[in-house]
């Protein structure tokens, strides 16, 4: 199969493309900054230029029968929640998706599979509510709720035989800024609860996320039905438990808590969004459970231990 990954030069795209190449698939990365040199210099992956806004010569990469698209395009959410940044977060996702949809409508054959990235943050701060694929999405909420809703709607009209929208929780992978930042706080003795510590964290090990994408593409069994799928481990934890697990992993039994006002001050200094630490949601997948998908890392402690190894 040829798999075209839009926005595939980031952490998740690299993890997915590495696995696909090892399995013998033709992997194309649509990127605004192609790396020079042949594919064998880049783990067997071909980089193709696009502007993430308009249909261009890159459309020819979608023409082969049996082609699949994985759309990961979008600016990182680690930014201050200003109107300008929220507009840019939305634009970077919606425009890229619309360009892919328009390209698919110009193809001789429909795409075989389409995996569309989204986020569990579409439910905003859900408190103690238990969420799954049937849960309704709140209307008109700010930041990632509104961004994600428009992101998903941009997929309407795509010419494709099988579409899966992955609402992904926090992906844990070694060497990523999010995990490294939390581990650093734990090592410095600052790894206590954030805010109340009761906010739910829906998380997933990167290896399980890749396997869910493969199942969405029909490349790993059990395959997944079309529609929305929550890509999150079956055992979310509250923030206090997350921080406790990280402290144990780095050998720090105690950690000072971070009150909400202090977090907001730190977020302003780091030019990030305090809602990333102060809001949460308990989201698990009924779809994955129904098809019998088996997580390799269903529990946080095992996932963190594997990543630190």
- Write down the CATH class: Alpha Beta
Average of the residue pLDDT scores: 91
* Main beta sheet strand tally, sense and closure: 7 strands, parallel
Widest beta sheet: strand line-up: 3-2-1-4-5-7-11
Low-confidence runs of at least 5 consecutive residues: none
CATH topology: Rossmann fold
Tell me the radius of gyration: 19 Å
CATH superfamily: NAD(P)-binding Rossmann-like Domain
- Shape label: globular
The CATH architecture term is: 3-Layer(aba) Sandwich
Considering DSSP H and I runs of 4 or more, what fraction of the residues is helical? Answer: 25-40%
- Beta-strand content bin: 15-25%
Overall SS class: alpha/beta
Write a structural description.
The chain is an alpha/beta fold and 309 residues long. The protein has a single domain (2-173, 203-234, 281-297), classed as NAD(P)-binding Rossmann-like Domain (Rossmann fold), CATH 3.40.50.720. It is built from ten helices and 13 strands. The chain has helices at residues 11-22, 83-105, 144-153, 177-187, 206-216, 239-249, 260-270, 275-278, 286-291, 300-308, and strands at 2-6, 26-31, 46-49, 68-71, 113-119, 130-131, 163-168, 170-172, 200-201, 203-205, 227-231, 237-238, 282-283. It has a seven-stranded parallel β-sheet with strand order 3-2-1-4-5-7-11, sandwiched between helices. The protein has a two-stranded parallel ribbon with strand order 6-13. A two-stranded parallel sheet has the order 8-10. Helix 1 links the parallel strand 1 (2-6) and strand 2 (26-31). Helix 6 runs parallel beside helix 10 (300-308). The chain starts with a strand and ends with a helix.
């Amino acid at each position: 199969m040829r798999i075209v990954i839009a926005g595939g030069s980031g952490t998740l795209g690299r993890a997915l493309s590495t696995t696909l190449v090892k399995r013998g698939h033709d992997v194309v990365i649509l990127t605004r900054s192609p790396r020079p040199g042949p594919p064998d210099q880049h783990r067997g992956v071909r980089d193709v230029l696009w502007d993430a806004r308009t249909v261009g010569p890159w459309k020819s990469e979608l023409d082969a029968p049996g082609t699949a698209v994985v759309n990961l395009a979008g600016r990182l959410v680690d930014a201050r929640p200003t109107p300008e940044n929220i507009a840019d977060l939305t634009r970077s996702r919606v425009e890229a998706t619309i360009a892919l949809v328009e390209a698919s409508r110009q193809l001789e054959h429909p795409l075989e599979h389409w995996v569309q990235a989204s986020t569990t943050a579409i439910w905003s701060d859900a408190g103690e509510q238990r969420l799954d694929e049937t849960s309704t999405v709140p209307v008109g909420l700010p930041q990632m709720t509104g961004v994600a809703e428009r992101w998903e709607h941009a997929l309407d009209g795509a010419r494709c035989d099988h579409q899966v929208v992955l609402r992904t929780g926090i992906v844990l992978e070694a060497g990523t800024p999010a995990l490294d930042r939390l581990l650093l706080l734990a090592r410095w003795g600052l790894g206590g609860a954030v805010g109340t510590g009761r906010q739910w964290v829906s998380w997933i090990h990167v290896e399980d996320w890749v396997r869910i994408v493969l199942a969405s593409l029909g490349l790993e069994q059990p395959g997944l039905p079309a529609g929305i799928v929550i890509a999150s481990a079956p055992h979310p934890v509250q923030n206090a438990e997350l921080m406790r697990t990280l402290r144990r992993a780095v050998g720090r039994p105690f950690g000072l808590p971070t009150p909400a006002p202090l977090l907001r001050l730190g977020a302003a200094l780091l030019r990030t969004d305090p809602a990333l630490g102060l809001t949460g949601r308990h989201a698990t997948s009924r779809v994955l459970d129904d098809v019998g998908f088996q997580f390799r890392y269903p529990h946080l402690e095992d996932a963190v231990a594997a990543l630190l190894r």
